[in-house]
Design a protein that fits this description.
about 425 residues; alpha/beta; five-stranded parallel sheet; five-stranded antiparallel sheet; 15 helices; 15 strands; about 25% strand
Length: about 425
């Protein structure tokens, strides 16, 4: 029997949830249903289970179906998502399609509606499986071999390279003929990546982004990431390896980790998904203390509305900028400036990039200049030498914290 397709069904109506789940599993033995009564529980299931399709009612507790779709897309931009609702309208359907829903079905008719739903689930899941299959990876890679920068290699059952795309020359620093007929592990610094794949049947380890280093013919080594999958060619088992040169990515990561500004990734609900090491120097918080926390909770209450107004939705067209006070570990606040950037989806991190710097010194300088302007204006309105002297004492005391408490007037003689 073909592998069953795990499906997450989300509906706030417990009766509808039970009926739909029961009908789907009776309609076909290819569907295995996990249920959730609300969006939050649904997201927990997605984090814990390998789900291949989501089916959601539009009217779900905590957020509507489109809000749930947005949260799901943050985790997996390609996961099939079917909006199955009895509350729909043309406006809802149009909005759902614009938001990237895979399919939209109304709860109309009798049991045939469950047949339609099962058909749509199977179609969406099978399409995704096909697109992600090793055969399809090889097909796409060879079709665009001249333009791709990733090296695609086909290996036999003992890890020997049987064919390779031209990108091998840039990634491995070797001609295709030098690689074909040799064990792939012979070119990898650890010398056992493929052996480990073969010994575990690819099931015990996540092989979608294995980090390693390639030894080139000149003796140099370059960082790479490799994705490994298995396919059958004319009844013969083959392993497909897609190898990418990570030199630029590692260089960028080094820059980020040593930059004086904080580089953070925020989810659409303002939670920290990544923080660079400089976070501790700038905010006083270690990155591990803030991961998963809602960033707005650390913003001064008087500044939150301005930050939300400046950033709005983090996926807007113009990069947002905001200046605000951020709570530090000692309970005080420090002035920061944040600038939003593009969305990323890499290394398991999804969200929006925000760069933040400490502007406390600049804010203090602005405050000082503002007070000097005020004192200058006030000085123009003093009527006596004593008033001028008192104002001068106040200015010096405030500016340099000298603790002056008096002044001495000296006559000309």
């Amino acid at each position: 029997m073909p592998d069953r397709i795990p499906v997450l069904l989300v509906d706030g109506d417990p009766d509808a949830l039970a009926v739909t789940a029961s009908f789907l599993e009776r309609e076909t033995d290819r569907i295995a249903v996990e249920t959730a009564p609300d969006a939050a529980t649904g997201l927990e299931v997605l984090a814990e289970r390998d789900i291949e399709c989501v089916v959601s009612e539009y009217d779900v507790p905590e957020r509507d179906g489109l809000g749930f779709l947005e949260a799901v897309r943050e985790r997996d931009p390609d996961l099939p998502f079917v909006l199955y609702t009895g509350e729909g309208s043309e406006a809802v359907a149009s909005e759902a399609i614009s938001a990237g829903v895979t399919d939209y079905l109304r709860k109309r008719g009798g049991t045939e509606r469950h047949e339609r739903l099962a058909d749509r689930i199977l179609e969406a899941a099978e399409t995704r499986r096909t697109e992600r299959s090793p055969e399809r990876v090889v097909e796409r890679s060879h079709a665009g071999a001249e333009g791709t920068t990733d090296a695609v290699l086909s290996l036999d059952a003992d890890g020997t390279v049987r064919s390779a795309t031209p990108a091998v020359e840039s990634v491995f620093g070797r001609e295709v003929v030098e690689v074909e007929g040799e064990p792939l592990d012979a070119f990898l610094a650890d010398g056992e990546t493929v052996d480990r794949w073969l010994s575990t049947d690819g099931g015990a380890i996540d092989w979608s982004a294995v980090r390693s280093r390639v030894r080139r013919s000149d003796g140099s080594e370059v960082p790479v990431s490799a994705s490994l999958g298995e396919l059958s060619v004319d009844g013969e088992s083959r392993v497909v390896a897609v190898v990418r040169d990570d030199t630029e990515r590692d260089r960028h990561r080094t820059f980020v980790e040593h930059a004086s500004d904080v580089v953070a990734v925020l989810s659409s609900d303002w939670r920290f998904r990544y923080l660079s090491p400089s976070c501790e120097r700038v905010t006083g918080h270690a990155p591990s203390e803030l991961l998963g926390e809602r960033s707005l909770d650390y913003v001064h209450p008087d500044d939150r509305a301005a930050v939300e107004a400046a950033f709005g939705r983090l996926d807007g067209d113009d990069p947002p900028t905001a200046e605000y006070r951020f709570r530090t570990t000692d309970g005080g606040y420090r002035w920061l400036e944040s600038v939003g950037s593009e969305r990323i989806d890499a290394d398991g991190v999804q969200g929006y990039v925000v760069t933040t710097r400490d502007i406390s010194t600049r804010k203090e300088r602005e405050r000082t200049l503002g007070r000097l302007r005020e004192w200058t204006r006030e000085l123009n309105y003093t009527r006596t030498t004593g008033e001028a002297a008192e104002l001068a004492v106040e200015a010096v005391d405030d500016l340099v914290d000298a603790g002056l408490s008096g002044n001495h007037l000296v006559s000309e003689d």
